[in-house]
Amino acid sequence: MTKQEKANKIISILEKLYPTVDVPLHHKDAYTLLVSVLLSAQCTDERVNKVTPHLFKAADNPYDMMKLSVEEIREIIKPCGLSPMKSKGIAGLSKILVEKYNGQVPDTFEALEALPAVGHKTASVVMTQWFGKPAFPVDTHIHRLAYRWTLSTGKSVEQTERDLKKVIPIEKWNKAHLQIIYFGREYCPARGHDWKTCPICKKYMRKELRD
Fold this sequence. Notes:
By secondary structure, the protein is an all-alpha fold. Helix 9 packs across helix 10 (157-167). It has 12 helices and no strands. It folds into 2 domains: 3-21 and 136-209, Orthogonal Bundle (Endonuclease Iii, domain 2); 30-129, Endonuclease III, domain 1 (Orthogonal Bundle), CATH 1.10.340. The longest helix is centred in the middle third of the chain and has 19 residues, at 83-101. It has helices at residues 3-17, 30-39, 45-58, 62-65, 70-77, 83-101, 109-113, 120-129, 140-148, 157-167, 173-186, 201-204. Helix content is 58%, strand content 0%. The model has no long low-confidence stretch (mean pLDDT 96).
C-alpha cells in the first residue's frame, strides 16, 4: 500500500468518527483565537479555556490589553506556564495590532509570524480556523501520530507538515488537523496506548512500534 492510499484510508476513518469538528479553544474572534493559541504552547486546551475567561474579562481586544501591564497579564495567565514569555508576547502583539493594523489581526502568514511570540503553528491555526485559508498546523501530537502511522518520517514538525500536505488534499487540511488531534486524545495517546484496539493503529501502525 502506498503512503497516499494509506492516507486516504486514514482520512476516511477520521471522517466517520469526526464528521464535524470544532476548534477546542474557546474564542469569539481572530484576536481571542490568536491569544488562546499562543497560550496553548506546552499547555492543554482545557487549562487555556479555564484561564482565558479571566483574561478576556479584563481585556478581550488589543486596545484594552494595552492598558494592562505585562505583570498584570502574567499574573492572570500563570496557570498556562511560560508566563514570562507569553505575557510579553501578548502585550507586544497587542501594541503592534493597534499601531500597525488598526486593532485587527492580519490575515497573512508573513504578518502573523512577525508578531511577538507567534510562530508558524500559531499562525497556521489562525489562518485556517478563523480566516478559512488552507493551512495544516502540526503540533507535537500530530507529529507523533503521523510518525506512528508511517505518514511521515519527519524529525521535526516542519517536515511532518510538508509530508502530510503531500498526501492529504488541500481542501481537507483545515478539518484533518483537528480530526487527528481529537483522535489522538480519544484513541491514540502517547502513553498507555493499546494499538490492537485503536481504529487506525491496528491496521496502519509502524511495525517497529508494535509490542
